Amino acid sequence: MAADKKILTIQDISCVGQCSLTVALPIVSACGVETCILPSAVLSNHTGADFHGFTFRDLTEDMPEIAAKWKKEHIVFDAIYTGYLGSRRQIAIVREIMDTLLAPGGLRIVDPAMADNGALYTGFDLAFVEEMAKLCGGADYILPNLTEACLLTGTEYREGLQSEAEIRELLGKLAALGAKHVILKGISYEEGRIGNVVYDSASGDLRYDFTPRVPRSSHGTGDCFAAAFTGAMLRGKSAFEATKLAARFVVASIRATEGDSAHWYGVKFEKALPLLTEALSVPTFTIEGKHVRDLETFYAEIDRVLTDGKQKTGHNLSAFDDILRGGFGKHAYGQRIHLYWKDFDVSRTALGDETALRLIGIILDRESGHDCKLEF
User: Which of 204, 129, 192 is CA-nearest to residue 168?
Assistant: First the structure.
């Protein structure tokens, strides 16, 4: 049996108000990932203006001592995910922890939680931004919003819709910091829709994902996104799959909070956890549309995607139906699966409309004994 993943998340605890560790711990745990924590501070509540002040206990002095104890115990983590950090010194401590407590091949995931809506959070300055840029530079994945991205790159922030050219330029600047992948949050090219872009710094490839914009501003949604993204990544999802799932989880959390004016301090993410857990319990398989040149190559692609290659399968519609039911090495017989047909338009052109639609009909026909969700 493969070893379960274990992550460390480093950020503050706001005891009331759904943000930081208060959401990271339950969300990542719900993803089925062991979640260890290193609090950077303890607050009575988050610092939103609608609270009348807050208590604050700085834990900077404790952080190195805790890390040193773990090192003596030979404790390592498969990923370290950071959120709100309260000072430049804490950033330096986090960099040391990442260098010493990550398992070989472990992931560095940085949410540079320091700004929104064009302004830095209270208590931060440009010297802090410079240190955060260094932390981002050593990360495998960074998850800035537009404001944070502009601050990290010295780009002027402006409100309103963006152009694709502007976003591409901003992504290039973020990649130049050194991060391997960038997930830029909160972009919008048209009214009523908001999205995220996943950027591979080495190849320059990017993929967009958009959702309807919910007309409600809520505390902690960035933290909910980062936690869901991290949990999904540790469960084997690709960065794009994790981004899509995290975005839909956040939308569902906001929707669950609509109409409750007394719940102004965060979102009811607890109501949306079933969406997250169900999505992670259903395996996703990707059909590469560019591999399909005719019906024979389609069957070969299905063999590649849904079988272990050890069993001979028939290359016909009846055999295709059998493979979808499972038991050929990739999913159990009768198990629900999610198929993502990438570059479907390429396959459709190669196969012809009639054949392509017939194959879709077989995939979606639950009366045949299989349970497949299909996405293009």
Answer: 204
C-alpha 42/C-alpha 46 separation (Å) is 10
Cα(243)–Cα(210) distance, integer angstroms: 10
Q: What is the CA radius of gyration of the chain?
A: 22
Residues 216, 221, 236: CA angle, nearest 5 degrees: 135
DSSP code for 219: T
The pTM (predicted TM-score) of the whole model is: 0.82
d(C-alpha 229, C-alpha 196), whole Å: 12
Sign of CA dihedral 110, 116, 118, 124: negative
Interval 286-318: pLDDT, tens: 999 999 999 999 999 999 999 999 888 999 999
Rounded Cα–Cα distance for residues 228 and 217 (Å):
19
Q: Using the CB atoms, write b or e for 101-132: b if 16+ within 10 Å.
A: bbeeebbbbbbbbbbbeeebeeebeeebbebb
